[in-house]
Input
Amino acid sequence: MTDPQVDIKENDIFKISPVLLNTLLKDHTLSTETEQVNIFWATDNYADRGKGYQYNDKISVEAITGVNEDVIVPRALKSREQQQRRSRDMAEVFTPSWICNKQNNLIDNAWFGRENVFNTEVDNPDKTHTWIVNTEHVIFPEGKTWRDYINENRLEITCGEAPYLVSRYDTVTGEPIPVERRIGLLDRKLRVVSENTETVNEWLNAAQAAYMSTYGYEWQGDNLILAREALLYTFIDYYYAKFGQEPLLKHLLCIAEIISWNIWQMDGLKGVIPNSCIQLPKLKDETTSLFSPEDFGDPQELTLFDCPGCKNKDIHSHTGTYALIKDWKENKVLTFVSLIKQK
Output
């Protein structure tokens, strides 16, 4: 466990537990108490593989394990052609770790009321960038505690592989980053957890709180899996660094469940499952119909109109399936858009 595994193998997760991998594939918005529905690809990059890899296909365990375990790889390990196509088609651009660090530092500067809490940025004359880790235990400002810090809600929008949350590797270069040098928002929380706990139970309870207050959403299913896997393995990395052994399966399952809720699939501009907005049938007298077009006798009496949310750019009136998230403190499920005030 000295060097982080950049390309996490789905076969490895499956060997730990099939349930663990299944949990990382779950879409809580669409799943029910009796049936699990997985996130979907939401990209055509895998369509040439055939059935099970089309844009709207759900991502199954079989599609990414066995001989298919190398189907999903981090952006840094994709071909240059694939990177360019994804940038062109989905405006996918990943941020180097030194920029993530700068921006995350701005958040902490505001929270702590001082600079260089976790590290000091270094901008070299040759235009390379790095940081020097502050190895002293983090000191908290008057009126704030380490528990306040780990419970502070953090969200990475359009998170991709979640480089702002966890920094196991630089998403641009693919270079692994050791635990002691990591700069993600969740990395910082887990560092604080390790500095302020002694026993396994204390650490686990605090780490769970840190995960419960860390969120991110992403459109493309493959990126979402990579982000979820990175958060899971970050948990393993920090646990190992603290206790010299890997966590028990029951602890991994608990964290994976939190991750599957908190890192979710969504169109960030609409707050719905990607491409779930549909055209609704409308009678000529402008009455909205609850039925399908074939339920009407004369198709000439029926027209279609676009989703009102899409038409008016109103995030609160889409016809799509609004993404669900979990408020762990209140132990309730709510739509993400309910957190956004209406105009």
